[in-house]
Every structure is written in C-alpha cells, then in structure tokens.
Amino acid sequence: MSKTNGRMILNLMLHNAGSHRGAWRHASTKVEEIHDIKHFQRLAQKAEAARIDSLFLADGLSVEVKAVQHGPIFGFEPLTLLSAIAAVTENIGLIATMSTSFNEPYNVARLFASLDHISGGRAGWNMVTTGVQRTAHNFGMEQLPSHSHRYARAQEFADVVLKLWDSWEEDALVQDKVSGIYANANKVHDIHHQGTYFTVRGALNIMRPPQGRPILVQAGASDEGKNLAARYAELIFTVQHTIEEARLFYQDVKARTAKEGRSPGSIKILPGLHVIVGATEAEAREKASELSELGSIERSVMSLSNLLGIDFSVYGLDDPFPELPESTQVNAYQTFYQMVLNIVQREQLTLREFLTKHWIGNGQLCIAGTAEQIADVMEEWYTTGAADGFSVMPQLSFGGVEDFLDLVVPELQRRGLFPESYTGRTLRENLGL
Ligand SMILES: Cc1cc2nc3c(=O)[nH]c(=O)nc-3n(C[C@H](O)[C@H](O)[C@H](O)COP(=O)(O)O)c2cc1C
Predict the structure, then answer these.
(1) What is the distance between the alpha carbons of residues 175 and 366, in angstroms, rounded to a whole number?
(2) Which residues form the Luciferase-like domain (predicted)?
(3) Is the CB of 131 under 6 A from ligand 1?
(4) Terminal C-alpha separation, the chain
(5) Ligand 1: distance of its center to the CA of 97 in Å?
(6) Count of CB atoms within 10 A of residue 182's CB?
(7) Residue 173 pLDDT > 60
(8) Which amino acid residue places its CA nearest to atom 12 of ligand 1?
C-alpha cells in the first residue's frame, strides 16, 4: 500500500430500490417495502455491522411528472429519514444533501446541529448548489439562478452556517442548578453577518453540535465547485469515469486545498462507484444483464437531459450523439456535462449506445464482478492517487447492499485497506479528520 494516511473511506449511498433505474422491477426487490422506514433502518444496521463510515442521501427538490411512471424518485426528506436511522444505530455517519440555492443558512445550521445532537456527533452536510431548472419553479422563480450566482451564494451560505455553529462556545452550557445559570451568556454570540446574499444577526437557537462542526461534504466538479470544496469541504462526492481522469481531479483538488491554506489530507475524495457483486464473474454479469433489460431508455433520456440542461428527447436515439458546446456555457451540472463530453469525444456513439453503455450510473465508474475483482479496482484507485475512498452505490438495494457488505468489505479488510471496527466516538473522529 503506497498510502500513508491509513485507510480507505467507505460512504454508502442509500437508495429506495438500488442505484440502477430498473432496480425496482428486479425479482429480488420487495417493491412494497421501498418506502418503508424499516427497509432503510435494516440497511443502515447492516452497513454499521460491516463498519461502513457513513450513509449518504442525495436529494432533489422537484419531480418531473412524466418520469414517475418509470420508477421511484427521491422519497423521504433526508434529515427526517436520517433522524429515524440515528435512533437505531450508534456509530455510522449520517450525511444528508441540502441545497444552498433553495434554503436559508439559519435553518440549515439548525437542522444539522439537531441531527448531530440526535445522533451523538454523526452528522454531515452535502452542500449542493442544485442544477435543475425545474426546481426554480417550486421556489417562486422563473429561472434557475446562474451557475456563478449559485456558487457565490453557496460560499457565503457555508460561511454563515459555520459562524452559526461556532456561535456557541464549547463550554457555553453550564447547567448549574445551584447558581441558577443554565448557559453562560458571555459564551453565546450573535454573529452579525452582513453579506451579499444574507443578513443574519443571530446566535444559533441550539447549543454547539457534538462535533463542533458537522462534516462538510461537496459534490460538483466545475471550477467554482472545486474552489468551494477547497475552501470548506472535508469530503467530496465526485463522479469520475476513468482512473486517469480521477487522478487529475484528485491532484487538482488537493492543490487547490493547499492554496486555501489547508492541509491536502484534510479533504477526502470519494468517487462514486456503482457495483454489482457476484459469487462468480458470470453471476455478476448475469445480474447486470437482467438489470439492463429492466431499465427504461426514455427515463435515461430524461435524466441525461436534466443533468446536462439540454433536451435530448428531440434527437433520434440511433443518430450520432449530438454536438455539445463548451461546458463553461452550461447552467446545469458542468461535472456531468464535462464527463459526457470526454466520453463522446473519445468514442463515436449514437445516443442509444451512449445511454446503454455509459449512463447506467450517470457516467460514474460501474463494476460488475466478484469481490476480488471489485476490490482490485478499488485498491488500484486508492493506492495510486485517484481516490481516498468511495461513495458506493449498489445497483440493487435488496440483496445487492448485503453482497457488497458481506463479500467486498471483508476482502478490503483482508487486504488491510479498510478497518474492522470504529475507533472514534463521532464521524469526524472515525474519519480521522
Ligand atoms: C456526484 C454528484 C452528486 C450530486 N448530488 C446532488 C444532489 O443529491 N442534489 C442536488 O441538488 N445536487 C447534486 N449535485 C449537484 C451539485 O451540487 C451542483 O449543483 C451541480 O453539479 C452543478 O455544479 P457543477 O457545475 O460544479 O457540476 C451533485 C453533483 C455531483 C457531481
């Protein structure tokens, strides 16, 4: 192992039925249970038994009505769901996505401070800027604010949230029945923030979170996204299609982090990894091909259109992939846009070929194989400067999560890449941050 900073981080994405869009139709999926809190609690407990670092919930604040026929959408609000999971777990980290474009920092600081208290110091906030135009219509806006506006707001948003968490000093809570002093008013401070986007007087209305600051997570790899990460993030959920691209991204973000005056080790980079595990390679391939029969190509076109901000339904599925402009002109997800651009510049594909070959996991790394084969890829990415760990997305929740936990995690442990027990009390301690 060439890494000296210890061990890999494993962040498990929770999905209703699985990360594959056809997973809800698979024979193993108990579709009547995918919105049952017990389903999520069971997965969380299994993940904790396998010593996974954290659970992660993505989120969206709008729904495309014509997409609902093709499968489950985001369901429960992430902090609500993670609070219910916190009640039945003790060690595993709990990371929720919450948008900086459609919330207020005071609410967000309070929500994550609450989850941190409820879970005994296990909360993390994935601060996303949101790139879907439709979302603006749910918040009284005609247009999604521009990419640069959203990122400028996100910077100030994060700044205010941090100030609010810090507004209670560590020893502000006294709770002395004899003197009658509950909290020391000299140690709780109004923040008097006055900026471009926010004016916030307050101290926070809840005492300092157990972690001090819940873990900050970022997803979005445009120039502005990387700068936001370099300044604030401790984990990055990123989408990388090849090891070469992942290494470049890794070096770039670590260098930007150092430029911000932070240690490069203080930011951990976790590429998304979609997995299907089989006892044999043939079995894994068989499952992958079953799933690909169950996915809907119309749904894939919708997801590509949403993430790139371009309507692909007007193009023929068997025509060559349409010409794309430069990614910096895109107001949607520049990360996904750039990745698609890289793929279609490398390979001559029709839209249908692109969608079936590369869009299963929205262009993220996908592996169907045995535990050893999957661990080989993870080890290579981890030991050669492409990743500090992974955001793992089993393509099937029913059975598929267990396969990863029961087969791949022990293989990583055998190789000394992943620890066997939690050593810290909080997520921050367990991550070594
Ligand atoms: C891997 C990944 C996961 C993301 N997850 C979410 C999410 O769950 N919810 C959301 O609103 N935005 C999500 N985003 C969007 C980003 O926060 C950001 O708004 C978007 O990618 C545009 O920024 P970019 O141009 O830097 O990519 C995600 C982005 C990436 C790359």
Answers:
(1) 52
(2) 20-386
(3) yes
(4) 21
(5) 10
(6) 12
(7) yes
(8) 130
CA of 294 to the centre of ligand 1 (A): 26
Residues spanned by the domain of 19: 9-168+204-277+363-431
HEC profile for 99-123?
ECCCCCHHHHHHHHHHHHHHCCCCE
Q: What gap in Å lies between CA 411 and CA 31, rounded to an integer? A: 30
Residue 301, domain member (yes or no) = no
Domain contains 19? yes
Q: How far is the CA of 4 from the centre of ligand 1 (A)?
A: 30
Tell me the CATH number at 243: 3.20.20.30
Tell me, yes or no, whether 309 lies in a domain: no
The residues, ordered by sequence, that sit 6+ positions from 193 with a Cβ below 8 Å of its Cβ are 159, 160, 163, 199, 200, 201
Structural domains counted in the chain: 1
pLDDT in tens, 261-309: 999 999 999 999 999 999 999 999 999 999 999 999 999 999 999 889 8
**Closest to 128 measured CA to CA, from 212, 55, 200, 236:** 236
Question: Which ipTM value was assigned to this complex?
Answer: 0.97
Per-residue pLDDT tens over the stretch 186-211 = 999 999 999 999 999 999 999 999 99
Residue 15 lies in a domain: yes
